[in-house]
Amino acid sequence: MTRIERFVKMEAASQRACDLVKKTAQQTIASKDRFSLAISGGSTPRLFFRLLSQTKGIDWEKTYVFLVDERLVPVKSPYSNLGQAKELLLDQVQIPQAHICAPLPELPADESAREYEGQIRSVFSPNFPDLDVVHLGIGLDGHTASLFPGSRQLEDNTNLVTEITAKDISPPIRVSMTLPLINSARLAFFLIQGEGKAALMEEINSGQSDLPAARVSPQEELYWLLAL
Questions:
Q1: Who's near 194: CB < 8 A, 6+ residues apart?
Q2: Which CATH fold topology does 2-227 show?
């Protein structure tokens, strides 16, 4: 089921995202005694991370956090998704360090991808990983995670994680979840802002698009949270 929700301000859209995470976390921990959340980077989710760090009622000690994708740069780099997540969210809540799973930037991209996939599989072993919530963004070219239009990684149905060299985007060397892992999620949401992203959302939800973001299909619910 796909739901489109529009908001006047980014704060309202970000708060809605927090509410979705909180509700799903509480339901999932009640039934499975743990909760898994995959988060994306970029400038759009900064307010979401701040608000989520202040959200009461999430048992962070039973929560596992994963990065949807990462640029292979030092954590202190302004381009590091993990660095941003730690500053605004992870260092502000009581989550065990062992519950934070991310690619290792000091490894070559292919080795980092395999090592990160190992981290993910170890959390869910012996079952196939099934994330509870995945937070996504979208680029103006229609990419999501670090899955870009025309890339071979879009057709990767074997690996959970892949290495990517992005064209004309800096930093180019990245590690990203693949569609099979993203689509294993119970719930996914796009948190987006602006008229350009709104037009992309409409194109994707028309059913006529083959952009990477159009291939996101979680098991139960997909939300588009749009701030104009």
A1: 227, 228
A2: Rossmann fold (3.40.50)
